From TrEMBL:
SMART domains: AAA. It comes from Roseateles puraquae. GO terms for cellular component: plasma membrane. This is Type II secretion system protein. Residues 373-387 form the Bacterial type II secretion system protein E domain.
Length: 565
C-alpha cells in the first residue's frame, strides 16, 4: 500500500535549505502563539529570513511557481477580470490576479491559502481548473493598485483593440447594451447617457427633456460596455483620447431606430451619449405640436408664401426639427417640389427629396444647398444654418423665388437677426430675405392620471389677468383656468409628467420691422415693434398651456426664462 504524500512543513524546509536556524523557528513560533499571524510573516518581521527567500521556499512547498511580475500580461488580466461574476474590485482588494488559459484559469497571489479567494474561485465558471502562482507581496500590491487605479479611471488601461473587441462581443455585454436600448425606447427616452465616475458608472435616460438615473454599475464593467457601444456606432474602440461621433441604423425591440453616438474623453473615462431616433414616430401633423389656434393660423399663413426665409429657433432638443417636419407634411400636397438638407435625416417623408450631408467627404450644408438650387425646388428645408456660407446661400435662395425653412440656435425669435449679422450677413440682406421667425421650447405635459389641483393659485391668477389686459383679443382661451400641479403615479414613473408640448413665440417681419433690421436697430427697438404687432412671449404662451391644465408654470419657467416675457 502506497504511503500518503505529506506536504513538508515550512519551518522544516527553511531549516533544510539553511535559511534559518532551529532557535529562530522556536522563537517565531512563540511570537506567533502570542500575536497570531502566519509563521512565514513572523519570520520576515523578526528578520530571520528575507521575503524573497521565504517565497522561494513557499513556491516549493505549495508547488506554485513564483512569478516575475514583469512577465504578467496586463491585457489578459483585464480581459479575464471583466468576465468574472465578482467585480474586478473584489479580486484587486484581495490582491489576486487572474488570466484565462485554454485549460482553465491561472491565479497569482501572495496568499494562495486565502479561504475567501478559494471559495470565490469555486463559484466561478472559469474556476473549474485553477493553476496557482505565487507573487511577492510587494508585486501583488503594486499590480492591484495599478489595475484598480486604471479601472477607476475608466480609460480601458492598456487594453489593445483586439481585447476590447473581444470584450465588446461577449454575449452578456451584447445583451446588456441591447436591453438598455430597449428599455430606453420603452421609457420614451430620447437619449442614453453613460457616465463613468471614480468608483461607479452611471446610466441615465433623458425622458421628456429631463435626465433620470436608471442604474449604476461597478467601474470594472465599464470598458466592455463602452467598447460595445463604440463598436456598434462604428467608432475606433482603441481611441480613448479624442472625441468621436458615429451613427447606426438598427432594429431594437422590433422597432427601426437610428442611433447617433457621441464620445468625449473625461477625467474618469469616455462619457458616451446615444441619441435615439425611432424611424416610425406616428403622426407628426401640425395638430400634434401644441400650437395655440392663433399661432397655428399665423404659422400656416407663413407656409403659403412663395418665397422668403422662415426661421425656427431654439436650443438643441427644443423640437425644431419636429416643427419643420410637421410644416413639410402640411404643405406636401404634390404641387410643390420639396427638398431638405439635413444632418442627419431624422425622419423619412414620402414625396420629399431628403439629402444627408457628409462633412467627412466635403459634402457640407453649403455645398448641398448650391446643388439644390439647380434642382428646381419650390421649398427648401435647411436642417441648421451653422456658418456664414450656409446663411448667405439660404438668403440668396429666399431672394430668388424659393421658400426656405431653416433652424438656428438662438434663445428667442428676434435674436435670430443678430445671429445672422454676427455670422457676417449684411443687415440689409437679412431684412430683405427674412419673412418670419418662430422661437420654441418644449415643456413637460402633466400626467392625466395623477395631476391634481394647485394649492396656491393667486400668483397664477394675477399673471393671467395681466395677460388678458395686454391681449384682450386672445382667441380660444380657457374660460375658467384649470391650475394643476404634478403628483406622480405608476403611469408616469412617479414624475408627475408624461409627454411634452411646445410653447412658442412668433414674429412676422412687418415693413416697420424690416426697415429697422436694415438700419441695424438695437434689440430693444426690434422688440418694441414686435410688441406693437401682438407678439406673445414663450412664457405667456406657456401660461395659456398652464391655464388649460396641460402643464405647470414652474415647468414653463424651467424651459423659458422669465426674461423672455
Amino acid at each position: 500500500m502506497a504511503e500518503p504524500v505529506t506536504t513538508p512543513l515550512l519551518g522544516e524546509l527553511l531549516q533544510a535549505r539553511g535559511l534559518v536556524k532551529p532557535g529562530e523557528i522556536d522563537n517565531a513560533l512563540q511570537v506567533q502563539a502570542r500575536q497570531g499571524g502566519r509563521l512565514g510573516e513572523v519570520l520576515v518581521r523578526l528578520g530571520a529570513v528575507s521575503t524573497n527567500s521565504l517565497y522561494g521556499v513557499l513556491a516549493e512547498q505549495l508547488q506554485a511557481p513564483l512569478l516575475d511580475a514583469r512577465e504578467l500580461d496586463e491585457a489578459a488580466i483585464r480581459a479575464t477580470l471583466a468576465r468574472l461574476k465578482l467585480p474586478a474590485s473584489w479580486w484587486l482588494d484581495h490582491q489576486v490576479l487572474l488570466w484565462a488559459v485554454p485549460e482553465g484559469l491561472c491565479v497569482a497571489s501572495a496568499d494562495p491559502l486565502d479561504l475567501d479567494v478559494r471559495e470565490a474561485l469555486a463559484a466561478e465558471p472559469l474556476g473549474a481548473h485553477v493553476r496557482w502562482h505565487l507573487l511577492l507581496p510587494m508585486d501583488a500590491e503594486a499590480w492591484a493598485q495599478r489595475l484598480r487605479h486604471e479601472s477607476q479611471a475608466g480609460m480601458g488601461g492598456s487594453l489593445d483593440a483586439r481585447t476590447l473587441r473581444e470584450l465588446a462581443e461577449d454575449a452578456p455585454v451584447v445583451a446588456f447594451v441591447n436591453n438598455t436600448m430597449a428599455q430606453a425606447l420603452e421609457a420614451r427616452a430620447s437619449d442614453i447617457h453613460v457616465e463613468p465616475g471614480e468608483r461607479e458608472c452611471t446610466l441615465r435616460f433623458r425622458i421628456d427633456g429631463v435626465l433620470h438615473t436608471r442604474s449604476t454599475l461597478p467601474m470594472d464593467r465599464y470598458p466592455a460596455i463602452a467598447s460595445r457601444i463604440k463598436l456598434i456606432g462604428g467608432l475606433d474602440i482603441a481611441e480613448r483620447r479624442l472625441p468621436q461621433d458615429g451613427r447606426i441604423g438598427t432594429r431594437v425591440a422590433g422597432r427601426e431606430v437610428d442611433i447617433r453616438i457621441s464620445s468625449i474623453p473625461a477625467v474618469h473615462g469616455e462619457s458616451l451619449v446615444l441619441r435615439l431616433l425611432p424611424k416610425e414616430r406616428g403622426d407628426i401633423g401640425m395638430h400634434r405640436i401644441g400650437m395655440e389656434p392663433d399661432h397655428k393660423a399665423l404659422f400656416l399663413d407663413w407656409l403659403q408664401w412663395p418665397n422668403g426665409l422662415v426661421l425656427v429657433t431654439g436650443p438643441t432638443g427644443s423640437g425644431k426639427s419636429t416643427t419643420l417636419y410637421s410644416a413639410l407634411s402640411q404643405i406636401n400636397d404634390g404641387d410643390r417640389k420639396l427638398i431638405t438638407v439635413e444632418d442627419p435625416v431624422e425622419l423619412r417623408l414620402p414625396g420629399v427629396v431628403q439629402i444627408q450631408t457628409q462633412a467627412e467627404i466635403g459634402y457640407t450644408f453649403a455645398r448641398a444647398l448650391r446643388s439644390i438650387l439647380r434642382h428646381d425646388p419650390d421649398v427648401i428645408m435647411v436642417g441648421e444654418i451653422r456658418d456664414r456660407e450656409t446663411a448667405e446661400i439660404a438668403i440668396q435662395a429666399a431672394l430668388t423665388g424659393h421658400l426656405v425653412l431653416a433652424t438656428l440656435h438662438t434663445n428667442d425669435a428676434l435674436s435670430a437677426v443678430n445671429r445672422l449679422v454676427d455670422m457676417g450677413v449684411e443687415p440689409y440682406l437679412v431684412a430683405a430675405a427674412l419673412r418670419a421667425v418662430m422661437a420654441q421650447r418644449l415643456i413637460r405635459r402633466l400626467c392625466p392620471n395623477c395631476a391634481q389641483p394647485h394649492d396656491d393659485v393667486q400668483p397664477l391668477q394675477s399673471r393671467w389677468a395681466d395677460l388678458l389686459r395686454r391681449a384682450p383679443d386672445l382667441a380660444d382661451i380657457p374660460p375658467a383656468p384649470q391650475w394643476l400641479k404634478a403628483k406622480g403615479c405608476d403611469a408616469c414613473s412617479g414624475t408627475g409628467f408624461r409627454g411634452r408640448v411646445g410653447i412658442y413665440e412668433l414674429v412676422t417681419v412687418t415693413p416697420p420691422l424690416q426697415h429697422a433690421i436694415a438700419q441695424g436697430a438695437a434689440m430693444e427697438q426690434l422688440l418694441a415693434l414686435a410688441q406693437q404687432d401682438g407678439r406673445r412671449s414663450m412664457v405667456e404662451d406657456g401660461l395659456i398651456k398652464t391655464a388649460r391644465g396641460q402643464s405647470t408654470f414652474d415647468e414653463v419657467l424651467r424651459a423659458a426664462s422669465a426674461q423672455d416675457e
